[in-house]
Amino acid sequence: MRYPQYRPRRLRRNEPLRRLVQETDLSPRHLVYPLFVVPGNGIRREIPSLPGQFHLSVDKLPDVAREAKSLGILGVILFGIPSRKDPLGSEAYDPDGIIQRAIKELKNSVPDLVVITDVCLCEYTDHGHCGVLKGETVDNDATLELLARTAVSQARAGADVVAPSDMMDGRVGAIRRALDEEGFSDVSILSYAAKYCSAFYGPFREAADSAPKFGDRKSYQMDPPNWREALREVAMDIEEGADIVMVKPAMPYLDVIARVKEEFFYPVAAYQVSGEFAMIKAADRLGWVDGNRAMMECLIAIRRAGADFVLTYAALEVARILGGG
Ligand code: PBG
User: Domain range for residue 164?
Assistant: First the structure.
């Protein structure tokens, strides 16, 4: 491969040639769209920290779901903002809770859209931590039972995939056992296996009203400098029964995505989180980057690193740009 025999520019001469040798592709089927569900009726309110994203009441979900589906998007992931919060996050596993109602509505209206549910307590606890407190620390083992209950109640409402994002040790195993015992052996687990303690969750915590009231999540979410630990987390979740493993955030952790993809023969998901999305939107508004191009470039980078699919707030707009299907 030496100049002048080899001239890489030959294959970049025009669009069809470039397309012919394109190594990675991005299409709507690679995108999962996150939705924020709020109590009430007729609500579709823009989320200030996530431009173009909305708080939706249950009755407003079918329209969005139909639109996503018509654009070629295969799945949504649901986050609930409950009407009341308490120390044990009990609305998370209430059979008539916000998410349970959202799942039923979606399954009734758009049955073949994959419904993924976030399994965590932070949106439901009054202290904002992802588990039960014992003093000022999050009690791992006491939390497992509530997470399992949450997953089972979501499965009972019709969820296709449950996605634990709490980062308690042993939660995938606890959820798998509980699902199997209750007759939901067909429900898959998408584990947020390598979820880092990240500054990039800021806009989400505003949107979901889920910021911890004291302290931080460093005692349960992963420390950003570590990648080998991420592989241990992934191995452990697979052993416990995860069907799909996720790395989160995405862009700052492309190396982790690539390594997980290489080491394990399991589907890999990546979450382009709220801060990643919001930064691009903000820079676009300031006229500093072309937001659409930047978004496409980030998503293709996440795919190139090895993600089979990407959870992204940009799913709808990107699917529109890609022309659907
Ligand atoms: C719940 C959860 C969080 C996100 C997804 N699930 C917030 C957190 O861990 O604080 C973040 C998603 C995003 O920033 O887009 N634990």
Answer: 21-321
Residue 271 lies in a domain: yes
**Helix %, strand %, coil % for the chain, to 5?**
45, 20, 35
* Mean pLDDT, the chain cut into blocks of 10 residues (325 residues total): 96 98 98 98 97 98 98 98 96 97 98 98 96 95 98 98 97 98 98 98 94 94 98 98 98 98 98 98 98 98 98 98 75
The kind and range of the H/E element at 163 are strand 161-164
**Ligand 1: centre distance to CA 204 (Å):** 6
Q: Mind telling me the catalytic residues? A: 195, 248
DSSP states along 46-64: E-TTSTT-EEEEGGGHHHH
Q: How far is the CA of 88 from the centre of ligand 1 (A)?
A: 18
For residue 225, the domain's CATH number is 3.20.20.70
Lookup result for tokens 């496409």: 296
- Coil vs helix vs strand at 317: helix
The total of structural domains in the chain comes to 1
